[in-house]
Specification:
Quinone Oxidoreductase, Chain A, domain 1, 26% strand, 15 strands, 2 domains, alpha/beta, Rossmann fold, 321 residues
Length: 321
């Protein structure tokens, strides 16, 4: 099979296409013939070495496809089943492995591309809006990178829960997408200071939550926008890691809360995974929009990473073997 391997960490050029034997499913695992793979910033961090992985390795945890072989001990899935996961192994390949308890069966109405585009980012939007802070009518939130894959989904979920949503984007084209997703106010941070814009719209220290996947360039300014006992949710760092924070700063700014969540802790059990995906599939049928921005062939994975790192994406980036 064709697969992407990383033999040493570094830039996108470290993603090398090569032929590998088909992976053999172990106990409790299945092998999936991959139809679509999600490209996510976590793979950029793995490629850079920010999140270390034993070398060499094939990246990619999010993919959808058809089971073609099951390993010992697998009882609930069979060859031919259509499945998706955000916790697989080696998804930048034509075939990949996943544990049975980390897979979800796809309804017939959900395509492989929609599943690969929805799974990780949809689950992230779900837990951010329903668990990290259980949004309710009257809450006011700021979503940075509001036209990205998570941003568009998070905006839609937040509006479903009755929140007022402000979003930051870099271009007019992205602003249009953010408004289409339901954002009440969209701020072009390339044209004006987002702090002044937010304060002009809702007042000083008026936000209940800030959802920040950008990191270094937005974090500290965003803290000053939160009301007392507000929550800063840092769930990414596309602009770079945030500098160390003295906990006293949170006290001085109004007894603020800070969390750095990760998806694994919000789908720790199979029941929780199934419940969140069940909601997402139901919302898909009720109009939730999943936007695929660009598709790249597996052999062009490096180009996909360059595009994602450019922060030009407006929706999901996929690899299609």
């Amino acid at each position: 099979m064709l697969a992407i391997r990383i033999h040493e960490t570094g830039g996108p050029e470290k993603l090398k296409a090569q032929e590998l034997p088909l992976p053999v499913p172990g106990t409790g695992q299945v092998r999936v013939r991959v139809a679509a793979t999600g490209v996510n910033f976590v793979e950029v961090y793995h490629r850079q070495g920010l999140y270390p992985s034993p070398l060499p390795f094939t990246p990619g945890a999010e993919f959808a496809g058809t089971i073609d072989e099951v390993g010992p001990g697998v009882a609930g899935l069979k060859p031919g089943d259509r499945v998706a996961t955000a916790n697989g192994l080696g998804g930048y390949a034509e075939y990949a492995l996943a544990a049975e308890d980390r897979l979800v069966l796809l309804p017939g109405s959900v395509s492989f591309e929609a599943a690969a585009a929805l799974f990780l980012q949809g689950l992230t939007a779900h837990y951010l809006a329903t668990s990290t802070w259980a949004l309710k009518p009257g809450d006011t939130v700021l979503v940075h990178a509001a036209a990205g894959g998570v941003g568009l989904l998070l905006t839609q979920v937040a509006k479903r829960r009755g929140a007022r949503v402000l979003g930051t984007v870099s271009t007019e084209e992205k602003a249009a997408l953010s408004r289409q997703a339901g954002a009440d106010h969209v701020i072009l941070y390339t044209q004006s200071d987002f702090v002044a814009e937010v304060e002009g719209l809702v007042g000083k220290k008026a936000l209940d939550v800030v959802y920040d996947s950008v990191g270094k360039t937005t974090f500290e300014k965003s803290l000053g926008l939160l009301k007392p006992r507000g929550l800063m949710v840092l769930f990414g760092q596309s602009s770079g890691p945030v500098d160390p924070v003295n906990p006293l700063l949170l006290s001085r700014m109004g007894s603020l809360f800070l969390t750095r969540p990760t998806l694994a802790d919000y789908v720790a059990t199979r029941a929780e995974l199934q419940g969140r995906m069940g909601d997402l599939f139901a919302w898909l049928n009720d109009g939730l929009e999943v936007r695929v921005d660009k598709r790249f062939s597996l052999a062009h994975a490096a180009e996909a990473h360059r595009y994602l790192e450019s922060r030009a994406s407006m929706g999901k980036v996929l690899l299609t073997p």
